[in-house]
Amino acid sequence: MSMQWKGVMPAVTTKFTNEDELDLKAFEINIKAQLEAGVHGIVLGGTLGEASTLLDEEKRKLTTTTVNLVKGKVPVLINIAEQTTKAAIEAAQKAEMDGAKGLMMLPPMRYKSGDKETVAYFKAVANNTSLPIMVYNNPVDYKVEVTLPMFDELLKCTNIEAVKESTRDITNVTRIKNAFGNRLKIMTGVDTLALESLLMGADGWIAGLVCAFPAETVAIYELQKAGRIQEAIEIYRWFLPLLELDINPKLVQNIKLAEVYTGIGTENVRPPRLPLEGLERNHVKQVIESSLKNRPVLPNYKNL
Asked: Least buried of 60, 112, 146, 151, by fewest C-beta within 10 Å?
């Protein structure tokens, strides 16, 4: 399967048992719900996937399990978030061996690399794997920005194909299109700017609340793609209070709690994260419960 950078790709959560082991049964339930809703790819081991807490063998188990579950229906991507170039290259090569069809890749972790170092890091990995790469550009959370001049250099690597655009600057979609046309595909990575980004020309959406609400997320994408903009806007307006749970330091706990409410996940997180409690928990529950009471009836978005 050649990589198609389009549509909705959930950055799925990682499911854990009460004993802090991978919960592959709960994970399978969620992946099947995503496929039934019509997602266009699966992204493993991102921020929502608690990547920084996962052992290497756990990442590989998640990759092979997901590849077996999707059976070629959609591509499986794994996130690369490493501290060294050597480790990033090894992770990319293992992902390829395990059946992944693409990589989402962050700049180096912990060390705040300069522009030259960041470019060299991405290029080194690209030159040591045949997998297509989506650069995750999130300077708000990870403090390193991949600028247009840096992309100009990176695109000399033919397998650097896409960007997960998470700068929070909606005008960046137009800048990227003006600079690179279709050479650099754009996957919006901020839930609360998703529809706006799609309408400005983004090719797809790496989504968070899709983990709990897959059908609504895919419906918004398919409706706007079909030109049924007002219908997409109406669902998006209903969705926004939930989407705001994604732009929060406790996004993992927030979204896992939402998954419990929709019956496709568990609340278990890996320490040092802990489940929500007190006023914080009550607020998130109120947002979820209020949204569920007013959950929209979706059109037949799969046959637009």
From this structure: 112
